[in-house]
Amino acid sequence: MIFTALIxxxxxxxxFWLNKKHDERKEFDSLMEVxxxxxxxxxxxxxxxxxxxxxxxxxxxxxxxxxxxxFNIDFSSNFTTRYIDEIPNEKLFKIFITYKPDKEKxxxxxxxxxxxxGFIRHVESEWEDSYKDFNRRYWKWTEEYFQYDKQxxxxxxxxxxxxxxxxxxxxxxxxxxxxxxxTKWHKIPNYQDRHIxxxxxxxxxxxxxxxxxxxxxxxxxxxxxxxxxxxxxxIKRIKEDYSKLFGHYHQHLINALSTIQKNLAEIEKYEDxxxxxx
Length: 278
Hints:
The chain is mainly alpha-helical and 278 residues long. It has helices at residues 2-64, 82-85, 89-98, 104-162, 166-171, 173-186, 194-211, 217-268.
């Protein structure tokens, strides 16, 4: 009887052990399926990031150029970590670390991988608002610039209207120098570009106003000239700031994706210990 009881207990323990091993094997196989899905998502992220990386590089380059330029940036509509984020880090740790006999180096690689995924997530959540904020601030100052620019244009129209003949012009030192600056500026290719306009027209006219402060026409001209100088300085600062920001997105997105690919490849060099039923 005791022997029969021992056999029954042994069978029960064996069955429990076999069920446990079966569950472990089942969990392992399930995790490997998730792993395959995760790696596919990483490949999709890398592919969609190619367009995004180029877009960040393009906009950073356009904004860095010291000239008026229009640009049409092709951002990726598939650049997202949303589906990757649905897989908890705890599950990823189980997938990539739990079954490694040697865990020290894989853990270090895994932590670095998670950090770089976090950076991509940060870029994803931030870049669109940054782009909208750039456009809002850029066009705000551009509209103000054009208001001052119109006042200068109106002044030029008045000056040209008052111009009678060369003899009169020679006697009017301010008008003579003003028109000379304007004529030289108009001879420059693409002279309406604000960078060229500032260097060859706005700044020289401002210096002319400073040299001839007693001329009554200065009062009418000086305010919009100063307005153009100030608003354009804001436009240049905004372009410079956002060129650096999108350049930052570009370079660090490249680095993050490279690190993720490299770390996944390195982790895979450490073989898993596959649970066995027997």
